Amino acid sequence: MAIFLTAESRILVQGITGSEGRKHGARMLAAGSKVVGGTNPRKAGQTVELNGTEIPVFGTVADTMAATGADVSVVFVPETGTKTAVLEAIDAEIPLCIVITEGIPVHDTAEFWAYACEKGNKTRIVGPNCPGIASPGKSNAGIIPADITSEGRIGLVSKSGTLTYQMMYELRDIGFSTAVGIGGDPIIGTTHIDCLRAFEEDPETSAIVMIGEIGGDAEERAAAFIEQNVTKPVVGYVAGFTAPEGKTMGHAGAIISGSSGTAQAKKEALEKAGVRVGKTPSETAALVRDIMRTR
Q1: Of 78, 73, 134, 79, whose CA–CA distance to 106 is shortest?
Q2: Pick the catalytic residue: 24, 107, 192, 251?
Q3: Residues facing 37 on adjacent strands
Q4: Using CA atoms, how far apart are residues 249 and 243, in angstroms rounded to an integer?
Q5: What is the pLDDT of residues 102-139, one digit of tens each?
Q6: Alpha-carbon dihedral sign for residues 261, 134, 123, 128
């Protein structure tokens, strides 16, 4: 089992002819993912060679889905064209759209997220400004390195790409069912709560790691959800314990106001919900090890 992404997932790359689309398309293919096509309206009918495999290029997401059975899109379109690309994916009703691109105007993200809701949430959006999803041993969609961990029973949801990689590497001997990088922009599609719910329902996930960061109230809301709905052990880490109060943080794009949004406030909310919280990534990994010894 895995959440959102499985061994049967068929991936298309929006922007497959660009440098990032080519590079990460080849990397995903090398990781064993089923990369079946890509889009570039100006190069429809051509192919792109990825690791010796000719991958067809189509004009639209709908065309790619019809020809290949693709059910996951990974977006590597520059920020100026990302909104149009995601709207196209939503119109095609692809089940999962992972938006890797960073630097997207918040207004654009708000617009395509609202459009997805208006269309009945038939397309799950992950991101933007995220590293994607990795289900080790099954599939890899995005930019998460495929060789830093192993298949196992830990579920991971994280706002930070770098901390996603560190946690996966530190716990590589235990392994992960799925790691989801949800992105750290002010507006994102899939949230901590969405992933917590999916991991709770996944029979092959035994414990959950949740990585957050200062700013906003997403972690406090996740804590309330955990308290009411999650029976599996959850270990948390909140980046930003040493950040000065009142400072805008680039990655989170959030301002700390009083105690609201601080790492300490988030830590206290999580601990109240029964979550063990590490003060550093390594301490967090050690807490996970303690839990997994008995599971």
Answers
A1: 79
A2: 251
A3: 12
A4: 8
A5: 999 999 999 999 999 999 999 999 999 999 999 999 99
A6: positive
